[in-house]
Amino acid sequence: METTTLRSAALGKMSRRTWLGTAAAWVASGWAPTWAQNGRAADPVRLALIEGLSGPMGNTGEAVFRNLVWAAERVNARGGIDLGGGVRRPLQIARYDSKGQAQEALSALQAAVDDGVTLVAQGNSSAVAASLIEAINRHNARTPQRALLYLNYAAVDPVLTNERCSFWHFRFDAHVDMRMAALMSVLKDDATVRDVYLIGQDYSFGQAVLREARRQLALQRPDVRIVGEELHPMARIKDFLPYITKIKASGAQAVITGNWGNDLTLLVRAAREGGFEGKFYTFYGNALGAPAAIGDAGVGKVLAVADWFPNAPGEASRAFYQAFRQRFPNPADDYIHMRMQLMIEALAQAIERAARAPSASAGVLPHAQDIAYALERADVTLAGQRLRMRADDHQAQQPLMVAVMERQGAQGVPFDVEGSGYGFRVVKRIEAEAAEMAHTCRMARP
Q1: pTM here?
Q2: Residue 29 CB contacts under 8 Å (≥ 6 apart), including other chains
Q3: Is the pLDDT of residue 10 over 50?
């Protein structure tokens, strides 16, 4: 990238920290500013990724970044985002490190505002998400002309699209209750499970998982006993063996957990070392080191729920996953989520719809409010997976899948995870109409 690009007025008052992260994103996405005839660099549409990119959960943030970069590459490969009047702009992912902390995330949000960014994405932590929603609501009330729009790809506490729903917040992941219902649709037919142990991270999301597990077990498997329940500090436990000892002593045949990141990897590794032979019904047991950590002990025993798996049936799905692996061939980078790809497709669709409105100014990024109204009507499909946005609560609706861990090469498992030799075979697909749940959102619209 030419150093003269730094002097372009199109970059605005970008901080050195933000510029370095942005430059890396441009390089990673295969796009760099080009000179227009007037000597100014093309002005990108910027999406601020506010995420823990360092610290104990930094690997999850970096994995999200790769997903969003790849999705942006797809948009840019077809010419970028059409803002009308013959003007197309590339989509750029700008990095802001929250270190996984709510206060740091709020500081990152302010940095994004100072940089002139109006589109924000975050997901790894419902506690952080709740703080961002409150801050964005306040900001937009104070400065409506510079309103912010918040895209959430992974913060799944149900309250975020129920009691605490916001016009400015859109969730592209299925929330806890939806995911738990999908898991329970498999557990209810598992006659080997008579006793379960509930364990989770001690914050809003982990608490919501255990609460919903209790509720749905009572409805769908009243014969199953909960023989233990535990919340532990998030990202602070280095040795889960004492927890596994208690789980073994309880006699449980299965564990239900929403743990993610290192808290999940260390938990399943301790289960292998401690000789726990029961099943794991998980939200995120299919990535970020968990399959390799548990090894053969997880074959047929570790289940996960997601919107999509690499081994989902269909040639379109297979080609989609193979394209990602060509782009990121390092096995350690093998972490892809369809919903993040669909989120970017929905954003591009919404911006272009808003830009075509009679009141829009050709070639100018529409106001966040106009994009939000367009995003309420989002309906996108990629590799056979369809996502539509429900306008009433801004909760995305899409199919869900439950899969079980198997050795690569087993029937239905052509692909492994992170070079571990283990992959996940889809055992159940829940269509969007069946996965959909009622809401309690009473949304105030501007």
Answers
A1: 0.88
A2: 69, 72, 73, 76, 92, 93
A3: no
